[in-house]
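Working notes for the structural subgroup meeting. M.R. asked for a predicted model of this chain before we commit to crystallization trials. I am recording the input and output together here so anyone reviewing the notebook later can reproduce the run.

Input as submitted:
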Amino acid sequence: MTYTLNDYYQLAFSNPNVPRVVVYPNNTIAASLLNYYKSKDVAVVSLADCVPKEDIRLPMPDAILSKLDGEINKHSGRVAVVGIDAYLSLLSEGNVTAFFVALRGRIDDAKRNAVFMVSGKNFLPTLFSPHCFESKSILKISGAFEVCEVPKIDVVPDKWVKPGSLVNYHTLLKQLGDFLPAGNYTLVLKDLRFKQAGLGNNVSFVFDVQRIAERFYGVSVDMEPAALELLLLKTKERGGTPESYLETEFGVANIDVQRALKRLLDLPDDDLWTAYLWLLRKRLSADTYLAKVLTDGITRANLLRKYVVDTAVTVLNDNNAKKFAVERTEALTGLLVESLIVEFIGQTKDINSAALFLNCGTEAERIEIVRRVSKLNLAAGLPEPFSSLYPALADYLSTEFDYSTSSLTDYFNEYRKLKITNTVTEAFTKKAFDFALPASFPTRESVLFDLRTDETALLIVDGMGAEYFPLLLAQAKRLNMNVESFVISSAKLPSSTEFNPIQWDAERTLDEVRAMDNIIHDGAAKHERCLPERNIAAALRVFETEVFKRIADGLSRFSRVVVTADHGSSRLAVLAHNKNWGTTLPWNGEPLDWRYTLAPKNAARPPELEQQYHSESGKTYWVVRGYNRLPKQGGKPNELHGGASLEERLVPVVVFTKAKTVVPAKQRDQKMTEELIDKFADLI
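Returned structure, recorded in token form:
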């Protein structure tokens, strides 16, 4: 309900001492209201008085209202609060809303003996319940609505401008007045260095010296630098040098080997640009990488290329090369330089010392690191600096984690090294064929059965074989994620997705990660010829960009997340075939797949094949052992799956938990529940 002034003056309240908001339409009525309060011995408190004079930052709503509470409590009687609209005129929309939300809380608790005067222009009625209007906690006064422009405030540092009368937010709010403010103001703040967040668009922070020169001294930005320097120094009347002027323009914090490059790239390519180079050459130590870059011939156009490529190539054998590499990557953080890094890689492929400079974390560098590592003898593990440069690769090659038996652990340790080096040996080809799991082995289904609870979610990483087991655990350790338990388990044969559906409640099943399987089939980029190192880098990237993010998301909603896979795959099966160490088995007709097919009736199973009966379909399949294959048309250039090799049939089951683990993660009990080898050999 809206009241006239006279109606408002005649109102009687059952409890006159509770807080109220009086919404006025214009400054004239606001002044009349204030005079009325004063005539009733109501004390007046301005929001400006809640802003300390020494503050160079405007307090935000919670802070200023807390200060206001103290000012109100100093008075024994009723208090009229003014200056609210002046304060609101400086805030962003979000903080205006926050102010009224906080004010609503004070109205609701009914503890402050105060009336808050707010204009109808700024008041947000939708934030208050209808009860507030019905109970007269909020009262609107009728009258002509006052239209006035929002005041415009320029906030500048006193570093370049002589201060006037407005030197803090306290004095600014005093000048803005008790009610609706208007006009243009310049606020000069001591030691101002950063724009304050939370203020409205009408409050402009001016830091650029050229803008200040134009705004306060009428100096055109087209002036020659020397003239501009001299004019600003004289106008400020405190002396100085061209160097201090450039320092001010460049920013003291930016005269630093990590920030200077970005600052130089941000600055306009004008006459001043070369002067900044002069400043940096004077200030930076000669044994820094940036000092090596800033030689003669540097221009705005060639700076980045010289920084990323040319100078790096010249310092590869410098005694400070390691320090230079660290400085370089810190300065390049956040810049789009991968195309230049590709150029650097192309120029240094055969230079071992260049590895130190592959430290910017780009895709091209990860691929190049894998390529370089593939040329090494990994018998002693992944050497430095590659472990530091590529932690995910070090995680993948980790030998810290046990596969439950020494023979399985040795098998996969060797498999991963061979895969990274993109080689296979006759000895390992024979091992892949001869390796027989125990007559029984824990199946993935039996392990998952024990883990099904209402607070446990499932994440399936399509194509994540047991080779990635160390990567899961090592990366979890680096990320400080809690692992409750883990186990290596067997998928169903044939080891393809269609034969390995995993049953889990839909509402507790996280979005499946399919990128790994896509890389297995198509490489890192479909319809492209992808080098092995590119595929490996892409696979490791899946864990960094998808797997662990989905685990973290799952743990935000569930107590535990179980991570497993439908099947694995074999890179070495492809390599063995290419070397003619894997036999292409004879077959009458076209088999279903390179690695499995339907068993013919009334035929004896060759020893190169394992047999698996599927009771659901009543079909029996023959599955290829080791690195042999069936004569299916076409080819698979990257990896194969569907067969019975260990890397295809074994998958990890790792249980991540939200709870902090007080003991190291344990290996789950290996329940021997399903015979894998020739279980149904006598059924045909």
